[in-house]
Design a protein that fits this description.
The protein is an alpha/beta fold. The chain has nine helices and ten strands. Bound molecules: S-adenosylmethionine.
């Protein structure tokens, strides 16, 4: 992870009754407890509605993971194997029992759409903070009758995918590996939303994405798909077998030998 200055991050309970949960998270993430609203550069906040990540001293809304938001609901309701470019890039066919690994789970949106289309997804996220936010989002979605069967198909692990692929049992290699790394140049479109800037500040640029691609190519049985900004060059200058280009993103598809 690359930081100009390592941000100081604390855990803050917004209500007294949530202090025990804040203490649990503090121990689990090895981050200090904040006693005040503006202590540290960033805070993982424990609220009655769930977890959030906020930049202190600003009015930027905290980053939360909400699979029931209007935007995710719209995308879920309109997703089909034909109109979801992600599904086309992964080469998904109706009810095909493929083993898919989302190597860069992040906020879980892409995995959620794949799960909504009926596929089982194994999700890897290496940032412990993003992992707890995502776990919290999944747990809240489990309480919703429509989202519950979808998130049941999403299995989250806190792991570095580079190591995960190295250690995978040869009999359980994934068919498809999907990779959506952070890029330094992702500044205009993808980071236009201020809460996404908070995400970028915490995760940093995924400068080892090239290594991740190479490891994935050695591990996947059928294909590796990399999401890139529409006009950017190929990752590691490695030409894909083919690409699917959308309005802001491009999906480069590699077919391992
Ligand atoms: C751009 S975000 C992914 C967004 C995601 N596709 C979504 O739909 O929300 C990239 C995420 O991948 C994670 N990541 C990057 N490299 C990783 C690796 N080697 N192993 C596991 N997670 C990784 C980062 O921590 C970050 O949370």
């Amino acid at each position: 992870m690359n930081f100009m200055k390592t941000p100081q991050i604390g855990i803050y309970a917004t209500k007294d009754r949530l202090k025990a949960e804040a203490e649990r998270l503090s121990a689990c993430l090895n981050l200090p407890l904040a006693k005040q609203k503006n202590e540290y550069d960033y805070q993982v906040i424990v609220t009655p509605e769930g977890l959030g990540l906020r930049k202190t001293g600003t009015k930027i809304l905290p980053l939360t993971i909400d699979f029931l938001s209007g935007r995710m609901t719209y995308r879920r309701q309109h997703a089909s194997l034909r109109n979801e470019i992600l599904a086309r890039a992964l080469g998904l066919k109706k009810k095909s029992p493929v083993k898919i690994v989302d190597a860069t789970a992040g906020l879980g949106r892409d995995s959620f759409i794949l799960a909504a289309l009926g596929f089982e997804i194994e999700m890897l996220e290496r940032s412990p903070i993003v992992h707890v936010l995502l776990e919290d989002g999944l747990n809240r979605a489990k309480l919703d009758p429509v989202a519950a069967p979808i998130v049941e198909r999403m299995k989250l692990h806190q792991a570095n995918a580079i190591e995960w692929f190295q250690q995978v049992d040869p009999d359980h290699r994934p068919d498809i590996i999907y990779i959506d790394p952070m890029f330094p140049e992702r500044s205009k479109s993808a980071l236009a939303k201020k809460d996404m800037r908070i995400f970028h500040d915490i995760v940093g640029a995924d400068s080892d994405a090239e290594q991740l691609l190479n490891r994935a190519l050695a591990c996947a049985k059928l294909r590796v798909v990399i999401k890139r900004p529409r006009l950017s060059g190929f990752l590691a200058d490695l030409e894909p077998a083919f690409s699917h280009t959308g309005s802001s993103s491009r999906f480069d598809i590699y077919l391992p030998r």
